[in-house]
Amino acid sequence: MDYSVVVIGGGPAGMMAAGVSAEKGHRVAIVERNKVFGRKLLLTGKGRCNLTNHTDIENHVNNLFPQGKFLYSALNLFPPAAMMKWFEERGVNLKVERGQRVFPANDDSHSIRDAMVEYMKNNGVELKPLQKVLECQVNENGFLINTDKEKIRTEKLILATGGCSYPQTGSQGDGYGWAEKFGHKIEKLEPGLVPLISKKRILNEARGLLLKNVKIRLKDRKENRLYEELGELEIIENGFSGALALSASLFVKKGENFFLGIDLKPGLDHKKLDLRLQRDLEERSNESLEKIMGGLLPAKMISPFEKITGLDFKKSGHEISREERKKIGENLKKISFLIEGKKDWDEAIITMGGINCEEIIPKTMESKIIPGLFFAGEIINVHGLTGGYNLQAAFSTGFLAGSNC
Ligand SMILES: Cc1cc2nc3c(=O)[nH]c(=O)nc-3n(C[C@H](O)[C@H](O)[C@H](O)COP(=O)(O)OP(=O)(O)OC[C@H]3O[C@@H](n4cnc5c(N)ncnc54)[C@H](O)[C@@H]3O)c2cc1C
Question: Rounded distance, CA 188 to CA 174, Å?
């Protein structure tokens, strides 16, 4: 036997699994098709890597789908706080930003990737970059892995090949085919964390604008509230992007319509906002409404907002009636858009679907079908909202799989 453990996939899940397993004393190799490890990891958080969310396990479970509970054991063994300590002990200083998002203090994802590679090397993991795995087989002695360079035999195998979004990073869904051959069920693969499509053209003038502190509410046709959150929303051509829209997209099904309500002033309730408007209109009574609204909205939003309210923004403050003021307040607190769909694979950040969780032992990440086969990371049917939940899931499942093989 060449190795006790082989990991396929040098992303965050695979690197963590390989390092932990080697630290336990196993002879471990990790096979990665790219020259560099963690290519996708380097792109995360726009190159800054939002590696986790500084909240408790319960919050992580609630922000992972379709069954966050499947990750209780993984998150208990390697919770967000432990992971942050883990990186800080390896010299990576971290910082917590709005929404409890955790980033390396130097805003550079390389420091996270480099710490992982160093950890693997320090524990004697044999790194095999530039090797594409073509096939995996199982027999009574273990696993046989055929790469484009060699044949590798191993007692235990960890599949950490990721999903199939951003295929240029190397994650092309190869692991699903092998798992299926091993008898595993693959839950339908769908593009996840994608922009929302809304053809109402009224906001097109404001495209490119990032609204930094708004609240959105997504509802289905039956008025069921599916998602509500405060944060950043980007206006794009015929739709919405940014962290809030991407997260909301996890609840949007193809072929169905949804409603998105945007609260542009979440910090003020209706009463306080009305008082603020009253004050602004009085104090600036000779200025145009267009100018007055400049104190409440980003410049790019003024003209679309004028169209939404149907008011004449050339009017002066003193010309605005009580009803008109109320109308402004109501629209600031809620503009509604019909959501007609979501974008496709070419814009997907993550893959929804994957290896059916019921066929994986949650306490170990081992297959219930093939002993000695383990899974870690996005290949599993668990996906999270934006905010660091996906990387935490990858690191925690990698840690659990590595600890148990
Ligand atoms: C642009 C972008 C930004 C993101 N930002 C964030 C963020 O800030 N926070 C967050 O929590 N999540 C973020 N994510 C999601 C996160 O990156 C993934 O969930 C995470 O990388 C999954 O880790 P993984 O190890 O399971 O898989 P991957 O990172 O996809 O790694 C899988 C590895 O397997 C290798 N591989 C696949 N097939 C083979 C084969 N046949 N042979 C050899 N090697 C193979 C691939 O080359 C790849 O390196 C982002 C994703 C993208 C695309």
Answer: 15
Three-state secondary structure call for residue 283: helix
- Backbone phi and psi for residue 268, each to the nearest 5 degrees, phi listed first: -120, 130
Please give the DSSP secondary-structure letter assigned to residue 28. E
| Greatest distance between any 2 Cα atoms in the chain | 86
Residue 200 confidence (pLDDT) above 90: no
CA–CA dist 145, 8 (Å, integer): 9
Ligand 1 binding pocket (C-beta < 6 A) is 8-14, 31-34, 39-41, 43-45, 49-50, 132-133, 160-162, 165-166, 170-172, 174, 349-350, 377-378, 388-391, 394
Closest-CA residue to 348 (of 230, 189, 176): 189
Residue 354 bridge partners (DSSP): 187
Compute the distance between CA of residue 11 and CA of residue 14 in angstroms, rounded to an integer.
5
Alpha helices in 186-298 (DSSP H): 242-249, 270-283, 289-293
pLDDT above 70 coverage of the chain, percent: 100
Kindly report the protein residue whose alpha carbon is nearest to atom 29 of ligand 1: 11
Residue ranges of the domains in the chain? 3-191+349-404, 195-343
pLDDT at 280 > cutoff 90 = yes
Distance 40 CA to ligand 1 centre (A): 5
Q: What would the mean pLDDT of 272-296 be, rounded to a whole number?
A: 97
What is the pTM for the complete model shown? 0.96
CATH of region 3-191+349-404: 3.50.50.60
CA of residue 49 to ligand 1 center, whole Å: 12
Report pLDDT digits (tens) over 361-383.
999 999 999 999 999 999 999 99
User: Which of 71, 96, 111, 161, when mutated, tests ligand 1's pocket best, judged by the most ligand atoms within 8 Å of its CB?
Assistant: 161
